[in-house]
Amino acid sequence: MLPGVAVQQTNRHHYSAPALLPHLLLLRFLSRFPISSLLGATSGLGALRESSAAKEDPDPDSKTSEINFPQGENTMSTGSRIGNVVAERLLDMIFRQKIEAGSKLPSAETISKVTGVSIVSTREAIKNLESIGLVEIKHGKGIFVTSGGPIVDEILEARKVMECQNAEMAASKIEDWEVESLRSLLMAMYEEIAIKDDRAFINLDHEFHLIIARAAGNRFLYRAFCNARSLLLYQQSQVNSYPGNIEVAAGQHKQIIEALAQRSPQGARLAMSIHLDEAMRVWKEMFSDLGLHSKARHAAGATARA
Questions:
Q1: Cα separation of 156 and 61, whole Å?
Q2: For the segment 115-146, what is each residue's pLDDT rounded down to a tens digit?
Q3: CA distance 162 to 226
Q4: Residue 212: which domain range?
Q5: What is the tens place of the pLDDT at every residue in 41-51?
Q6: Structural domain includes residue 304
Q7: How many domains does the chain contain in total?
Q8: Exposed end of the chain (fewer CB within 10 Å): N or C?
């Protein structure tokens, strides 16, 4: 987790604007690191195969999927936690249907060894994916991609519900220094747009939404936001890589800030809704060639009815 805005603190009123400045400067520095070459890496890839599959799973028909990871990849991911290398790579392969539903993944130990990510961070990444329903850990058998887990439309809908509510609540609770923090982030975003640094923009974009989630003052919603961190970072990295989207996103961020500064709950909700509707449109367009939405929703519905 980036140190910006001290996100682990539950008492948000403990911090002041001067205390926040060093964190924002550090965030600017960290955002210069590449967003994990994992999302399109084509060199130095190693095929992973569970070496102990027969011992862990008595079912001879259960096969472990071959998952390609950058070997020894210690490049900083879209966030400060190196475990995101694992989570984002798996997310990318699941959403692009490179891993079929029901497929068995390599063990955490195998993934850790090949990627160079610590076993603790690897297990944390896998648990994170389990918490949002994308993988299932079956004790004594292994890790499996869920067949009835959340799909693209459902994930986008859930994000909109959560973030629009955060924006509405934040409008009546946000403090002046937090508004100024958002404005500072927006200025930094425009600087990154000017030098065409999309990677740095994505980190700033995520921090922007994180500040609003914390300012909303609801620990349960904030925790839900943090639990979905890997997923949100992955989505933001994909959407913001779309040509021209970061300029649009920055303009929408400005509208959100103005609504928060005016302490307008409905205005903040509307501005956030417009922003996320555009993100949903871009996301669906990017994945439309895979036919994820209609097929996945039908499959999930059938699973739910069963």
A1: 34
A2: 888 899 889 888 888 887 888 999 889 999 88
A3: 12
A4: 14-34+151-290
A5: 323 333 333 33
A6: no
A7: 2
A8: C
